[in-house]
């Protein structure tokens, strides 16, 4: 009986000494002394279950890192703490390229699909507004061809002048007046081949209204770019703050055993461990 008691006592004393250096050694000794019951208790503490109390009910058994928290809690530092820098950097870079990609990398598929859906909606709206603008500008040019006699392809400054003057002669007269006032040579005159003349003022107003609608569509199109930038910024921020929120860094099942690599990336007492367990 004494021969059995002495090794057990030595293990208990060794466990008490190791606890001063780190709770991981204590867990190993407790397993040796108490067997599967101890390991089952530790697994409960590691799985965010209720804390396992000492036999005398005095205080809960600490986790292996001595933090009084479970490993899953320890993996999530306080806001602003340095947690999983590499994962945060990768998650942020992925979301910068494609909003939602960082959330998908973090395992948050709901947020990933939401961010990607918003991004798809933004660019869909962009191309819709761009097509609307082109269509309305083309309609305005067709309107000018019917009611003002314009022909051919011209720059935007020409089409602006068509909407501002009743005919090309009025436009040329304005260019002469500006040149005399500024005492510079006259330029940008409209030749006979590009001349126009509106049948009445109402038709010119109709043309100007079509162009105004086209420009409005282009403005909304350009505004979508701002939305895309904001969506990326939000997605990057969310991906960075969401990276490393608990969970195992790696998990696999080997020969019937669950193998998990877990980290505690705190500055004060960093650590890592590999947990091998088997369910019964």
Structural write-up:
There is one protein chain. The chain has 280 residues and is mainly alpha-helical. The protein has two domains: 2-84 and 244-277, no CATH class; 85-140 and 204-243. It has ten helices and three strands; from the N terminus they run H-H-H-H-H-H-H-H-H-H-E-E-E. The chain has helices at 2-21, 23-34, 36-46, 71-74, 85-97, 101-106, 109-147, 156-164, 168-182, 201-242; strands at 250-254, 257-264, 271-277. Strands 1-2-3 form a three-stranded antiparallel sheet. A hairpin with a 2-residue loop joins strand 1 and strand 2. The longest helix has 42 residues, at 201-242. It is elongated and about 95 Å long. Mean pLDDT is 74; it is low at 1-22, 39-50, 53-59, 63-83 and 246-250.
Q: Keywords, please?
A:
single chain, 280 residues, mainly alpha, 2 domains, 3-stranded antiparallel beta sheet, 10 helices
How much helical structure, as a percent, in the residues? 55-70%
Globular, elongated, flat, extended or rod-shaped: what is the shape? elongated
Provide the number of structural domains. 2
C-alpha end-to-end distance? 32 Å
Strands ordered across the widest β-sheet: 1-2-3
The ordered string of helix (H) and strand (E) elements is HHHHHHHHHHEEE
* Largest sheet: number of strands, sense, barrel closure: 3 strands, antiparallel
Radius of gyration: 37 Å
Mean pLDDT: 74
> Structural class of the secondary elements?
mainly alpha
Beta strand %:
5-15%
Q: Stretches where pLDDT falls below 50 for ≥5 residues?
A: 1-22, 39-50, 53-59, 63-83, 246-250
How would you summarize what this structure contains?
The chain has 280 residues and is mainly alpha-helical.
């Amino acid at each position: 009986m004494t021969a059995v008691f002495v090794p057990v006592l030595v293990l208990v004393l060794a466990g008490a000494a190791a606890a001063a250096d780190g709770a991981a050694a204590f867990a190993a000794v407790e397993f040796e002394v108490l067997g599967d019951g101890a390991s089952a208790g530790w697994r409960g503490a590691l799985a965010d279950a209720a804390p396992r109390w000492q036999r005398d009910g005095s205080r809960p058994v600490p986790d292996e890192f001595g933090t009084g928290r479970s490993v899953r809690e320890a993996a999530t530092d306080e806001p602003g703490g340095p947690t999983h820098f590499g994962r945060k950097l990768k998650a942020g870079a992925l979301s910068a390229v494609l909003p939602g990609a960082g959330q998908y990398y973090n395992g948050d598929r709901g947020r990933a699909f939401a961010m990607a859906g918003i991004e798809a909606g933004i660019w869909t709206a962009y191309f819709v507004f761009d097509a609307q603008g082109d269509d309305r500008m083309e309609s305005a040019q067709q309107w000018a061809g019917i009611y003002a006699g314009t022909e051919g392809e011209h720059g935007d400054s020409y089409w602006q002048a068509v909407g501002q003057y009743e005919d090309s002669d009025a436009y040329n007269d304005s260019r002469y007046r500006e040149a005399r006032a500024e005492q510079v040579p006259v330029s940008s005159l409209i030749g006979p081949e590009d001349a126009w003349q509106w049948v009445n003022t109402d038709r010119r107003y109709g043309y100007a209204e079509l162009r105004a609608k086209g420009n409005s569509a282009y403005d909304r199109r350009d505004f979508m770019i701002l939305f895309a930038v904001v969506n990326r910024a939000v997605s990057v921020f969310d991906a960075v703050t969401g990276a490393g929120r608990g969970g195992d860094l790696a998990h696999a099942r080997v020969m019937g055993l669950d193998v998990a690599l877990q980290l505690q990336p705190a500055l004060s007492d960093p650590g890592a461990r590999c947990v091998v367990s088997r369910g019964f």
